[in-house]
Amino acid sequence: MVKKSIDKFYLGLVYLFLYLPIIVLIVFSFNSSRLRGNFEGLSLVWYESLFRDRAIMNALTNTLLVAISSTIISTVLGTFAAIGIHYLRGPRREAILNLNYIPVINPDIVTAVGLMALFKFFSIKFGIQTMLISHVVFSVPYVILNVLPKLNQLDNNLLDAAMDLGATPFYSVRKVIIPQIMPGIITGALMAFTLSIDDFIISYFNTGHGFNNLSILIYSMAKKGINPSINALSTLMFATMLLLVIVINKRNKGENN
């Protein structure tokens, strides 16, 4: 009994350590005072200021544009890549799977610098196109890892049966395989969107002059001093990420049940 109480107390301290800064951030996003550490009362003034700020709204538009575009592209590429990997056999399948794990476990800074060097080598102008390509590159492996488990649950003869009945390979994939693995595709798309919204390092190294997303803008604003509008913006971003995590977890629980 005492051991369980100690374990719960220790776990509570860990969660307090992890989430206390976020709680403070959320509380002060509703502070009517501009001064940090001086809470004068509840107010939505910084949220109003946030939505009147043209730079923040432009950054939000850029963030959503890149996130939605990269999610669509990476979901399509990752889904068909997962199908191809699933039907491979032998050493080639293991080799490709191991290659797919590398971007997942690779430090973001290495991926960011590598992509930046690649764009410079091919003289690609930095801007929305380089950021979009970068987000697709680091999102595709996560889509593959979410789709493959659903493919592994399918009957291995399903595709052959469809083609024996006269369907072409592409029609079989589109009408037979994809509907069966749709939960994994949706989960992979949500993961890709979450990663894109959340990313800073890869975006920072692969953006161009005048093109910012929210994470880069927050970093730039923080260097000049903490504007209370940043608290409001960060709170909204945290709420968005939390909502996506809840949706992903519910989908995973539904699939397991």
List the helices and strands and how they pair.
Layout: H1 2-29, H2 45-52, H3 54-86, H4 91-105, H5 108-121, H6 128-152, H7 158-164, H8 169-180, H9 182-198, H10 201-205, H11 214-223, H12 228-256
Helix pairs in contact: 1-12, 2-12, 3-6, 3-9, 4-6, 6-9, 7-8, 9-12
> In whole angstroms, how far apart are the ends?
32 Å
| Total of helices | 12
N-to-C order of helices and strands: HHHHHHHHHHHH
- For this structure, what is the CATH homologous superfamily? MetI-like
**Alpha-carbon Rg, integer:** 22 Å
Proportion in helices: over 70%
Q: How many β strands by DSSP? A: 0
CATH level-3 fold name:
MetI-like fold
What is the mean pLDDT?
85
CATH class: Mainly Alpha
The CATH architecture assignment turns out to be Orthogonal Bundle
Supply the helix-strand structural class: mainly alpha
Which term fits the overall shape? globular
Largest sheet: none
| Residue runs with pLDDT of under 50 for 5 or more positions | none
The fraction of residues assigned to DSSP E strands is: under 5%
Count of folded domains: 1
Describe what this molecule looks like in 3D.
By secondary structure, the chain is mainly alpha-helical. It has a single domain, classed as MetI-like fold (Orthogonal Bundle), CATH 1.10.3720. It contains 12 helices and no strands. The longest helix has 33 residues, at 54-86. It is globular.
